[in-house]
Specification:
This protein has 631 residues and is mostly beta strands. It has no helices and 48 strands. The strands form nine sheets. Strands 3, 6, 8, 9, 12, 13 and 16 form a seven-stranded mixed β-sheet that branches. It has a six-stranded antiparallel β-sheet with strand order 42-43-44-39-46-47, with no helix packed on it. Strand 18 and strand 19 form a beta hairpin. The chain is globular. It starts with 12 loop residues before the first strand and ends in a 38-residue tail after the last strand.
Length: 631
């Protein structure tokens, strides 16, 4: 599975009358004698004999596929260089002695190249030696604390590998510390889907399913680790009813067992965490998709929960085969008016990175959904829909296609989160709900703008490529039903004493070739509002603040959340979010930024400051209200 270290090698030989071949990885050295491309176009016919007039030589045909770089093959001390990705070369009249080594003396450091066959044959017949090269993947996993700065240093990460025949390998472990985990040297196969899962005590397990294009060898994936609720103890030998955060569970007596199926009698710990994806769809793991009897379907969520039971030592416990637990969980706040009386139930599968269709349904009882569960994990209510697709492309700051970039799609009026990854040409196709407005952005080695896309009845195509850039910073504002409209404002230096001001009246600005955007302006509750900064062209103070435009509630009373995402180029090329909650009636984020980059060490110094919370902000000297453009 893993490539041999370059320092290790094994030598196989050609013997008079027999041919044997195998991969050897060694250091690159010696002169490279490259056979000109197209020197011999003779059809490859293994059974065609070579002129037996000279029994001491033989033609050797070498075919190479998947090469990305230079490959050196040595026969009888002579090296031949290959650089075409796919091609064949006939090495004529290679000398045959009693023992003739045939080795791969050097392959690209980013690939493993091996002989496909180790069969022998009798000279003087020519045979084809086939070498296949595959990229070696270095996959970095970042386990980041959702809702605060920092990583989860107690996490463990593993990877499941799927191919056309099913699961090929399970639980390939990552190594690392402090919330950053690395899988080095995995050789990518054909048509593989990789599922990486991350787990940690005190957090909801997460998993991500993706296919790599094979063009990228260094890939990073970020995982939002949502904390669980505090533990509640209970006696599993008697029936218990426990309530946490508005969710309630009834645990029948003797329904909890250990890994061997033995009923547990010792005091145990319950972690029941209601999950409202109204403001943050990412609190539910993975994408909102499942394999159902009707095929592969996407779904919108009406709310969910995570439930775990552990013993006193932290070991996971299970539900007995003949038992079930009754759970009541709040309906998602965004769906209280429209949530149906009954929905399907889904439970997240960490092995596949998808949601499984569960037997029970969720039944609404007032502001709660009730369901009988037969396994612990993360559950969601689900309304299935047949998706349409948004297509487009992702490029870097220089306009070059970006492979393996994540493209996220989040619904505006429905709670849905789906994603896909770009192919080698930087193209993507992401499933979404038809006839909706969807917010699309990319998360690669850099941030991007957020695009509001109408899906129609048959999907949509973005008219411009999404541009990802490590200098890009975004600020996302979400809130509850009331206030009905919160507004984002961004001010910053424009050179000299000038200032730019981004808000709903002036949604774009340019300073020294760097652009600032109000990508999304929401006026109908919940948000999001998204401000994007493509860099910090002028050193100074960049201030973000919000004000209540309409509604009777205050910003503080609404579940307002501000998410600042920037790439700290001086520490890492991976997006790191910092989510800050309102601590007063309003908030101003204020940070000194160096030109062209957002310093990570400036993030903890972001300080809240109260400003007036009033219904209408005056945006001109006359004091008259500047109305919003039609939504």
């Amino acid at each position: 599975m893993f490539g041999n270290p370059p320092a290790l090698f094994e030598q196989h030989t050609l013997k008079a009358g027999f041919l044997a071949c195998v991969l050897v990885l060694a250091g690159c050295g010696g002169e490279s004698l490259e056979l000109p491309s197209g020197e011999d176009d003779t059809p490859d016919t293994p059974d065609t004999p070579v002129d037996p007039g000279n029994p001491d030589v033989q033609d050797v045909l070498i075919s190479v596929s998947g090469l990305n770089g230079t490959l050196l093959v040595a026969i009888e001390g002579q090296q031949r260089s290959f650089s075409e990705p796919n091609g064949s070369h006939r090495l004529r009249e290679m000398p045959l002695s009693s023992e003739t080594p045939v080795t791969i003396t050097s392959a690209p450091a980013t690939q493993e190249c091996v002989f496909d066959n180790t069969e022998t044959m009798e000279a003087p017949y020519a045979d084809r030696l086939t070498i296949t090269c595959r990229n070696i993947l270095n996959l970095t996993v970042l386990a980041e604390r959702y809702g605060e700065e920092g990583t989860v240093d107690t996490a463990t990460a593993t990877m499941n590998i799927f191919n056309e025949g099913g699961v090929e390998a399970v639980d390939v472990p990552f190594v690392g510390l402090d919330g950053e985990y690395l899988l080095e040297g995995y050789v990518l196969g054909d048509h593989e889907q990789l599922v990486t899962d991350v787990q940690a005590p005190g957090f909801i397990a997460n998993a991500l399913r993706f296919v790599l294009s094979g063009q990228r060898i260094d890939v990073s994936r970020r995982f939002d680790m949502v904390p669980t609720s505090a533990a509640q103890t209970f006696d599993p030998t008697v029936e218990s009813e426990l309530s946490i955060g508005g969710a309630t569970v009834t645990i029948p007596a003797n329904s909890i067992v250990d890994a061997d199926g033995t009923p547990v009698t010792a005091t145990s710990n319950l972690y029941l965490t209601p999950l409202d994806p109204s403001l943050a769809p990412e609190v539910l793991p993975g994408g909102y998709n499942a394999a159902t009897d009707s095929g592969y379907m996407n779904f919108e969520s009406m709310g969910g929960f995570d439930i775990q039971v552990r013993d006193a030592d932290g070991n996971p416990l299970y539900i007995a085969d003949d038992a079930s637990l009754a759970v009541s969980t709040p309906v998602a706040s965004q769906e209280l008016t429209d949530a149906p009386d009954e929905t399907d139930a889904r439970v997240f599968n960490l092995t596949t990175g998808q949601w499984d269709a569960a037997t029970p349904t969720m039944t609404r009882n007032g502001d709660f959904y009730e369901v009988a569960i037969d396994q612990f994990g993360t559950w969601s209510s689900a309304l299935d829909y047949t998706p349409v697709f948004i297509t487009g492309c992702v490029v870097d700051a220089n306009g070059a296609p970006v492979a393996d970039a994540m493209v996220l799609a989040i619904g505006q009026a429905y709670i849905g989160r789906t994603f896909s990854f770009t192919n080698a040409a930087g193209q993507f196709s992401v499933p979404v709900m038809p006839e909706q407005t969807v917010f699309v952005s990319s998360r690669g080695e850099g941030g991007s703008r957020t695009f509001a896309v109408g899906t129609g009845t048959s999907g949509a195509s973005l008219g411009t490529c999404i541009r990802v850039d490590p200098n890009t910073t975004s600020v996302t504002l979400v809130w509850g039903e009331n206030p009905s409209d919160l507004d984002s404002h961004l001010r910053g230096p424009a050179g000299g004493r000038e200032q730019f001001h981004i808000y709903y009246v002036s949604k774009t600005a340019e300073v020294e070739g760097v652009n600032f955007y109000l990508d999304v302006d929401d006026v109908t509750s919940y948000g999001p509002e998204v401000v994007t900064l493509e860099g910090f062209p002028v050193a100074g103070t960049y201030s973000y603040y919000i004000h209540r435009y309409a509604g009777s509630s205050t910003i503080f009373q609404s579940p307002t959340r501000i998410s600042l995402t920037c790439v700290a180029k001086n520490t890492s090329s991976v997006l790191r979010p910092w989510i800050l909650r309102i601590a007063g009636t309003c908030l101003i984020l204020k940070s000194m930024m160096n030109s062209s980059r957002c310093l990570r060490n400036a993030i903890p110094s972001l300080t809240p400051r109260r400003i007036a919370d009033h219904r209408h902000r005056t945006d001109d000297k006359s004091g008259a209200l500047t109305p919003h453009a039609p939504a």
